[in-house]
Each structure stands twice: as C-alpha cells, then as structure tokens.
Amino acid sequence: MKSLPTIIIVCLLIAGGWWTWTRLEKESEKTKSKPLQTSEVTIGSIEDVVNAGGYVEPVISTEVRSEITGRIETIHIADGDTVEAGQILLELEKTERETELEEAERLYEAQALRLKQAQRDYARLEDLRAKNFTNEKDFLDAKTELGLMEIELEVRRARLEKAKDNLAKTTIRAPHEGVVGNFDLNPGQVITGATSVNQGTTLMTINDLLKLHVRTKVNELDINKIQKAMKARVAFDALPDEEFVGEVSQIFSYAESEGNERIFRVLVTFEAGDDRIRPGISSTVTLPLNQVDDVPVVIPTALFKSKDGFVAYRQSAGDVWEEVVVETGLSDVHFVEVIKGLNVGDKVSLTRPEEDKPNADS
User: Fold this and answer.
1) Is the pTM of this model over 0.70?
2) Distance (Å, rounded) from C-alpha 283 to C-alpha 277?
3) Both 305 and 346 in a single domain?
4) Closest by CA position to 340, among listed 296, 291, 292, 290
C-alpha cells in the first residue's frame, strides 16, 4: 500500500512531461517558416472587354389592331404560331359590311343612271340652243344639273370603295413574317377598331425573331469605350453552349440613374434563327475592346502595389527572392500582361517574402 502514492506521483510526472512536450512541439511548428506559394510567368492571351447583362427584344415587333369594330367570327392562328406576310390571322363577321357594300353598289348604279339622264338632257338642250329653239336659262340649268350628277357619282364611287375596303378589313392579315405573341382572344368577342381618338383593341403582336437585339446598359465609366457598329458576343444562361455574333446598333445619348450608378442604354443587334431564343430571355453581352496574343502573362496575385507601381518577387539563384519592378499591360480576371521586368519561365512568389514584408511599427 505504501507504493501507491509513489506510482501516482510517477504517473503525474509522465503526464506532465507528455503535455509539456506536446505544447513545445506545437509552438515549434508555428515558428517554422512555411514554404512560399509560387507561380510562373507563361505565354498567354488577354482580352480587354466590357460585359453587360440585358434581355432580348425583337427588332421588328408589330401590334396588330383592327381598323374597324366587329365581332370575331373565325380564328386561324394560335399564340406562338409562325406566320408569313399577308397570312390570314382572323376574320370578323361580314354580314353588316356585306349589306353596306350592296347598298353602296345600288346607290352608285342609281347615280350612274341619273348621270346618263342628265347627259341626255344637256345634249338635247345644247342641240336646241344651237337652233335657237330654247332659252339660255334652261340650257345653263341643264349644264349645272349635269355637273352636279357627275360630282354625286364621284361621291357614290368613293363610298362604294370605302364599303369594299371595310369588307376587306374584316379579314385581318399578318403585316410581316414573324411569330404570334400576346394572343388571347376567342370567337364571339367584340373588338374595337382603331380611330384617330382611340387606339382600339390590341389583337396580338407579330415578332420577327430572325433579327433581335439585346437591350443592355453600360456604366458611365465605360460608355466612351463603346462605339456604334463595334462587334459584340451574345450569350445566354439558358443556352450555355450557344454564342452569337452581333454589333452595337444604338447608344442612347442620355444617362439614367440606377441605384448609385449612372448608366447608358445600349442596343446590340444579332441574327438568331433559333426558336429557343425568345423575346424577354436574359443574356450577357461581351464587348471586346482590345486583345493581345502570345505575350508573357502572370496571375494577378503575383503582383504587389508599391511606390514604383507594381513589383514582383522573382526567385533567383540560391532560392533568394529578388524584388523587381514590373511594367504591365492589359489585364483580365485571370492574367496580367507583363511588358517589362519579368521573363517567361520566371518563378514568382504569391506572397511577400518575410524579409520584404512592410514593418508594422513603421
């Protein structure tokens, strides 16, 4: 029993020694210098671009309205259909317009008969006047009557043409090739015709989906880099494998506020020919400004700001890190062009070597 306290003391000494050794080992690990992360100067290409988001609109989009009021009788299309220019879209009831046309035709025929009678009367009086068998008043009255009949016939002809035109307008046709959109009408519905004081019922839109544009916005800091007719690339999140070539077709001349930024609206036009690209779909526009190929490049984290501009830490003989001033060119999110200061194959540090880190006390 007397040996138990001795055993306990020995165990405590062993545990304490182990704990002390572990602490010292961890402190030693902390004080060990970690190897620097490095990168290498390589050959690459860099493209300076302006990226902007937006949404697709058709360049040609026509709202179809009727010029006359009427009740829909027959519908020949559905929303989403592709139509040709002049194709029949829908028809209105024709009964009332056919009645108007028939009445106009009869009135025109009646007036034509009256004109013939007036022409005969005038010819007879003109012959009698030549033989001094009639007075001047009767002759002039016949001449006036003939003129009035001719004018009235022209009025009847105009009304007849209008009646024909109104009947033709009961058949509504596509103004141009495109895809039907925003169509939600049924047979029997009454639509209002467009007039000078009323725009009338919008029946549908016809969107030409061959030529589209992206309505996007560019920050005021970048807008002076953008020029009309410059090339652009158009991509879509919904179609990650597709990219289309377009060009800047319009730059709006006034700035708009958006949050704390001032932006300019820009239209980028492109030809799609793909029915998966629909009006309203979101897109990303890339506007290339400048590009260099096959030049020395380094990753951005290998460069550090200094009073001389940018510096890098290049590994020289004997694993010594040498500070060099670097002249840079174009850059993107991946690489920076090296114009002077580094050569292809140079190994550079991604962190400042310990001896070159700024002194916290200075």
Assistant:
1) no
2) 10
3) yes
4) 296
